[in-house]
Design a protein that fits this description.
Elements lengths: L2 E6 L4 H11 L7 E8 L2 E8 L2 H6 L10 E7 L14 E2 L5 E9 L2 H12 L10 H10 L4 H11 L2 E9 L2 E10 L4 E4 L4 E4 L11 E4 L5 E5 L2 E5 L5 E2 L4 E2 L4 H5 L6 H7 L1 H10 L17 H6 L2 E6 L1 H18 L3 E5 H4 L10 E7 L5 H12 L3 E6 L5 H4 L3 E4 L12 H21 L4 H12 L1 H9 L2 H11 L4 E6 L2 H17 L2 E6 L16 E6 L5 H12 L4 E7 L11 E5 L7 H19 L18
Parallel strand pairs: 16-17, 16-18, 18-19, 19-20, 21-22, 21-23, 23-24, 24-25
Antiparallel strand pairs: 1-4, 1-10, 2-3, 2-4, 5-6, 6-7, 7-8, 8-12, 9-10, 9-11, 11-15, 12-13, 13-14
Helix pairs in contact: 3-4, 4-5, 8-14, 8-16, 10-14, 10-18, 14-15, 16-20, 17-20, 18-20
The structure holds fructose -6-phosphate.
Length: 609
């Protein structure tokens, strides 16, 4: 995720900014840059890759100042490159900005600036328009110019701006993206996140939405939307830098579980137009292409494969096309039936998983159209695909994938709806119902996360088990696989997932007194069958934890614990059903004292076979 650090003081802004940016490295980034006002001009240096690449080009003592802004970028619009890195300048570099977030109407602004002001753009980013807007409105007062620019922008942003003609100040503004001002003596900081500042300050102002801040070395002035000064109490940071990186959560995994409402919102909402149609930026498949696919192939590994299991059922139902699914390591070695009428979907958080990449190349060689669902912009899978559908989950740091999974599911739904609508295989009423249930998900996930204590309590009760089963039917069966993987990878418990109807064909032999089984029963049309499956294993003495939709209380009679998820249509329930499983895995691992964020033998990005 992008990081912002700005400094106003007496000297050596460069040093402090680099320090701050390094404190944000853990969040992931693909390039870094810095802008300083020097001798009446703004100088910008930026470089793709790690901060040490940037450090190599800012070494000379003349490149320094008492004021400056810096940025680490996590690409959303435009691949990682020197030009797309921040800071961005206006046409004559009299203004420079850094930006976190997304400017939704940047295309409109770009066209307007090009047409009416002859502006030419150096980068492919949405952010560059901000520098030009401020430049056009600038008349000797940076605060006023920033306010005017903001009035033209739609979207989410934390922006910091400097002007060559006012080299003693930074003006910053926020809407739906974090921003904090750090209070020093004879210097002040602005940053997107507290960890960036902790080496230098412990007192911060938390900037609120639609507020603007002017920082000079001796003063921090906050203005509200109406331009009136705001009094804000300082917030004393008591955590150490390590805890601050996790924003108070004990582990990145827990932080990322809690970031899911935001990830789902970002991935979903920006792709839905006001009239309910779906906008798939970055995907150039035509109606004819979609109509000509006679098969879809989904290929991925691990958690991404589990998202594909749900995707298969969703796309088949909505787009009326057969969908095959395989793990990448099998697909690549078995000469699969793939041709130019196949849509090949690769799902990958990192975009660097070697097996997925090799499978994608194999599918391409056979003529398939390749669409990837990827979290890391500009990654190998993204670069080698015909179309890329990004999950806007933000960087995932914990090895166990959580927010990438739920945003991958969102992409599957959007793709199913889009293809179904384009082909005319989806009824309007059904389309509207799915869409409205999808839009309700961020709030429902938020609600479900409030059951954290209840789930932690269940985890405490059962954390000593050495074997756990996960069962479900239909879409729940795909979620069972994910729940089982989460538990085994971070707690090292031997867990096993199986379609509930398949139990009696062998696995039921393992059911005995006290065997622990997680039963997912969120599919209304399979609910009764699921209750019967649970009864069968209960009769053998198994302990059951069920996940069911609110109001479906029948299952209480046959289970030891029930975790209820908010009501929704069956199709979207996997996004909700997985949350208790993630939390259960997390709290079991915590009780067992495991290294949750870095489980043994596992890596975040598997770039070997
Ligand atoms: C499990 C997990 C892995 C990954 C798998 C694929 O929590 O994270 O199973 O899902 O290694 O990785 P990506 O999605 O990066 O291709």
């Amino acid at each position: 995720m992008c990081g912002i650090v700005g400094y106003v003081g007496a000297d050596h802004a460069k040093e402090k900014i680099i320090d701050g940016l390094k404190r944000l490295e853990y969040r992931g980034y693909d390039s870094a840059g810095i802008a300083l006002p020097i001798d009446g001009k703004i100088q910008i240096r930026k470089h793709v890759g790690e901060i040490r690449n940037l450090e190599k080009i800012i070494g000379e003592p003349e490149f320094d100042s008492a004021v400056g802004i810096g940025h680490t970028r996590w690409a959303t619009h435009g691949a990682p490159s020197d030009l797309n890195s921040h800071p961005h300048g206006n046409s004559d570099n009299s203004i420079a900005i850094v930006h976190n977030g997304i400017i939704e109407n940047y295309q409109e602004i770009k066209e307007w600036l090009a047409r009416d002001y002859g502006v030419t753009f150096k980068s492919e980013t949405d952010s560059e328009v901000i520098a030009h807007l401020i430049g056009i409105f600038y008349d000797g007062d940076l605060l006023e110019a920033v306010n005017k620019a903001v009035a033209e922008m739609r979207g989410a942003y934390a922006v910091c701006a400097i002007a060559a003609a006012e080299p003693d100040k930074i003006v910053a503004v926020r809407k739906d993206a974090p921003l904090v001002a750090g209070v020093g003596k004879g210097f002040n900081f602005i940053a997107s996140d507290i960890p960036a500042l902790l080496k230098y300050v412990r007192q911060v102002y938390l900037i609120e939405n639609n507020e603007t801040v002017v920082l000079t070395k001796d003063d921090i002035v906050i203005y509200n939307e109406e331009g009136r000064k705001v009094r804000r109490d300082v917030f004393n940071v008591t955590w150490d830098a390590d805890a601050a990186e996790k924003e108070g959560y004990e582990h990145f995994m827990l932080k990322e579980i809690h970031e899911q409402p935001k990830g789902i919102y970002e991935t979903l909402t920006r792709r839905i137009n006001d009239d309910g149609s779906i906008r798939l930026d970055g995907i150039s498949m035509t109606k004819e292409d979609i109509e000509n696919f006679n098969k879809v192939y989904i290929v991925a590994c691990g958690t991404a494969y589990h998202a594909g299991l749900v995707g298969k059922l969703v796309i088949e139902k909505m787009a009326h096309v057969p969908v095959e699914i395989d793990v990448a390591s099998e697909f690549r070695y078995r000469d699969p039936f793939v041709d130019e009428n196949t849509l090949f979907i690769a799902i990958s958080q990192s975009g660097e998983t070697l097996d997925t990449l090799a499978a994608l190349r194999e599918a391409k060689r056979k003529g398939a159209r390749v669409l990837s669902v990827v979290n890391v912009v500009g990654s190998s899978v993204a670069r080698e695909s015909d179309d890329v559908f990004y999950t806007w989950a933000g960087p995932e740091i914990a090895v166990a994938s959580t927010k990438a999974y739920t945003t991958q599911l969102i992409c599957m739904y959007l793709l199913g709806l889009y293809m179904g609508k384009t082909k005319g295989t989806i009824e309007d009423d059904y389309y509207d119902k799915v869409l409205s249930d999808l839009k309700a998900l961020p709030d429902k996930v938020e609600l479900l996360l409030k059951k954290e204590d209840e789930i932690a309590e269940i985890a405490r009760k059962y954390h000593r088990r050495e074997q756990v089963f996960f069962i479900g039917r239909g879409l729940d069966s795909g979620v069972s696989y994910e729940g089982s993987l989460k538990l085994k990878e971070i707690s090292y418990i031997n867990s096993f997932a199986i379609a509930a109807g398949e139990l009696k064909h062998g696995t039921i032999a393992l059911m005995e007194e006290e065997t622990l089984v997680f039963a997912l029963a969120t599919q209304d049309f399979l609910y009764e069958k699921m209750v019967s499956n649970v009864e069968e294993i209960r009769a053998r003495g198994a302990r059951i934890i069920s996940v069911a939709k609110e109001g479906r209380t029948e299952i209480e009679k046959v289970t030891d614990e029930v975790i209820y998820i908010p009501d929704c249509i069956d199709e979207v329930s996997p996004v909700l059903a997985v949350i208790p499983l993630q939390l259960f895995a997390y709290y079991v691992a915590r009780e067992r004292g495991c290294n949750i964020d870095k489980p043994k033998n596992l890596a975040k990005s598997v770039t070997v076979e």
